[in-house]
Write a structure and sequence with these properties.
Distance between the termini: 26 Å
Largest sheet: 2 strands, antiparallel
CATH class: Mainly Alpha
CATH topology: Farnesyl Diphosphate Synthase
Strand order of the largest sheet: 1-2
CATH architecture: Orthogonal Bundle
Number of helices: 14
Number of domains: 1
Helix content: over 70%
C-alpha cells in the first residue's frame, strides 16, 4: 500500500522527470525509514492517511538527499546500480533532488500536516549542518569524539528520529509521546551510523570500498579512538598517511591494521551496542507487545546487518 502511494506521490507531468522517478522508485533500498514510521505509528495508535503521507515524506526527503549526495561525491553507483548522477549528470540530478523536496513539502501542505512537516523539515536542516560540520572538521582532522557524535546525530540520526516522531505523532497527536519515540529513533540512528562506519574496516562486499572514509579524510569513531590511544610518533605517522597518502591502498591498509590492533573496532562496536540498548530501553516503556517485537527486530537488524 505504501509503495503504491509513494509512486503516486512522485508522479510528474514532464516525461523526462517521470522516467527518472520510475528509475528511482524501481531501485528502492531497504526502506528502513518508512518501516520505522509505520511501526512507530502502530506503537501509539492506528495507521491512517496521515501516517502514509509521513512515510512518503520521509522517503521523498531521504531520496532527495541521496540524489544530491551522489552529485557532491561524484558517485557513479547507488545500491549496486547506476546512480541518477551517472545517467543524467549534475544539472538534472540537482533539479531532480529539488523536485523531490518540493513534492514532499506539498504532500504535507496540501493536507495540513503542518506538525509532521515541521518535524521533518527540522531533520533536513540538521542533516545539512551535519554534512557541513563533517567537511569542516575533516579539513582540520578533528580528534574529538564528542564532535563525531554531533556530526552523526545531525547527519544520520536526525532523519530516523524524525521518521519515528512523525509516525508516532500521526496516530497519537501527543507531543510528549512523540518526543519519547523521537529519542528512541535517535539512538537507533546513532547505532546505525556507527555500524556503517565499521563497514569501512571490514572486507565484506557491501558496495562501499574498504578504507573509503580514510581516503576521504573522514574521521570515524574507530580511527578517532586509535589516534587518541597510540603514542605520539604513531599518531603523527597515521595523520601523515591520512593527509598525504590517503589514495595509496597499501598505506590505507596499514591504517586499518593499526585501528584493529589498537582496539578501535571493539571500542566502536561497544558504543554502537550502548546506543542500541538505550533505544530498546525506551521501547520497553510502551505497551503494544506485537509492535514492540517488530521494532526490536528492526533495531537489531541495524546493528547485526552485513550490508
Amino acid at each position: 500500500m505504501f509503495e503504491k502511494k509513494f509512486k503516486e506521490a512522485v508522479k510528474s507531468q514532464v516525461p523526462l522527470l517521470d522516467r527518472i522517478m520510475q528509475f528511482i522508485v524501481n531501485r528502492k533500498g531497504k526502506q528502513l525509514r518508512p518501516m520505522f514510521v509505520f511501526l512507530a505509528a502502530k506503537l501509539c495508535g492506528n495507521v491512517n492517511e496521515s501516517t502514509y503521507r509521513a512515510a512518503s515524506l520521509v522517503e521523498l526527503l531521504h531520496t532527495a538527499t541521496l540524489v544530491h549526495d551522489d552529485v557532491v561525491d561524484e558517485s557513479l553507483e547507488r545500491r549496486g546500480f547506476f546512480s541518477t548522477y551517472s545517467l543524467w549528470k549534475t544539472k538534472i540530478s540537482v533539479l531532480v533532488g529539488d523536485y523531490l523536496l518540493a513534492k514532499g513539502l506539498l504532500l504535507s501542505l496540501d493536507h495540513d500536516d503542518f506538525r509532521i512537516l515541521q518535524i521533518l523539515s527540522n531533520a533536513v536542516r540538521l542533516m545539512s549542518e551535519g554534512e557541513l560540520l563533517q567537511i569542516e572538521k575533516s579539513r582540520s582532522l578533528n580528534l574529538d569524539e564528542s564532535i563525531y557524535y554531533e556530526i552523526i546525530r545531525n547527519k544520520t540520526a536526525s532523519l530516523l528520529a524524525a521518521a519515528c516522531s512523525a509516525g508516532a505523532y500521526s496516530t497519537c497527536h501527543d507531543e510528549s509521546i512523540a518526543e519519547k519515540v523521537r529519542l528512541f529513533g535517535e539512538n537507533v540512528g546513532m547505532a546505525f551510523q556507527i555500524k556503517d562506519d565499521l563497514f569501512d574496516y571490514g572486507a565484506a562486499d557491501i558496495g562501499k570500498p574498504t578504507g573509503n572514509d580514510i581516503k576521504e579524510k573522514k574521521l570515524t569513531l574507530p580511527l578517532i579512538y586509535t589516534l587518541n590511544n597510540v603514542d605520539r610518533s604513531t599518531r603523527k605517522k597515521l595523520i601523515y598517511i591520512i593527509k598525504n597518502q590517503n589514495k595509496d591502498a597499501e598505506k590505507v591498509r596499514e591504517v586499518i591494521q593499526k585501528v584493529k590492533e589498537t582496539g578501535g573496532i571493539t571500542y566502536a562496536e561497544n558504543k554502537m551496542f550502548e546506543y542500541r540498548d538505550a533505544a530498546l530501553s525506551l521501547l520497553n516503556e510502551f505497551e503494544n507487545k506485537e509492535v514492540k517485537n517488530g521494532l526490536e527486530e528492526l533495531v537489531r537488524f541495524t546493528t547485526d546487518r552485513s550490508y
